[in-house]
Design a protein that fits this description.
- It is elongated, with a radius of gyration of 26 Å.
- The two termini are 14 Å apart.
- The strands form three sheets. Strands 1-8-7 form a three-stranded antiparallel beta sheet, with no helix packed on it. A three-stranded antiparallel beta sheet has the order 4-5-6, with no helix packed on it.
- The protein has 151 residues and is α+β, with helices and mostly antiparallel strands.
- It contains two helices and eight strands.
């Protein structure tokens, strides 16, 4: 199970789903059970509970599943043979330090189709297609559409 950096938001989300359903079942569905014939009235209550349980299961599966965190590159020099080394001086010590500079984008052939991939300065790697860097968990994530900010 992999949850985001803030599990409290998951608990709050569960509360915000369950609390209205409890009020609905108590104040709306119970009087409806008395107004309609027995099988229809009970079906309204059962439908509310079943949809709520289904919603909670999907929330748990979405928020607890690994989104595809791409491991960081520990050796950026091995990433590309033709990198540029630019010398920059450190202001407070006066020593020259070398810094690796990679092109921002690179063309890669995937299944016979040329795809542009972007370089991530934080993770020091070229991100796969559909991959984005998450500023909350500070990782490159493959399936970013269901990740930290939204779940």
């Amino acid at each position: 199970l992999i949850f985001g950096p803030d599990v409290r938001s998951f608990v709050l989300t569960v509360f915000l789903i369950v609390a209205p359903v409890i009020f609905f079942c108590y104040y709306v569905a119970t009087p409806l059970m008395d107004q309609f014939p027995r099988p229809i009235g009970i079906a309204i209550m059962v439908a509310a509970v079943v949809f709520t349980v289904y919603d909670l299961i999907l929330l748990l599966l979405t928020s607890a599943r690994d989104p595809g965190i791409v491991p960081r590159n520990t050796d950026p020099a091995a990433l590309q043979e033709d990198y540029d080394i630019t010398n920059s001086t450190n202001d407070f010590s006066g020593l020259k330090t070398s810094k690796l500079r990679f092109p921002r984008t690179k063309d890669v052939v995937v299944n016979g189709v040329s795809v542009k991939v972007k370089y991530c300065d934080t993770c020091m790697l070229y991100r796969p297609p559909r991959c984005s860097h998450c500023s909350i968990c500070n990782n490159c994530v493959e399936r970013f559409d269901h990740h930290c900010p939204w779940v």
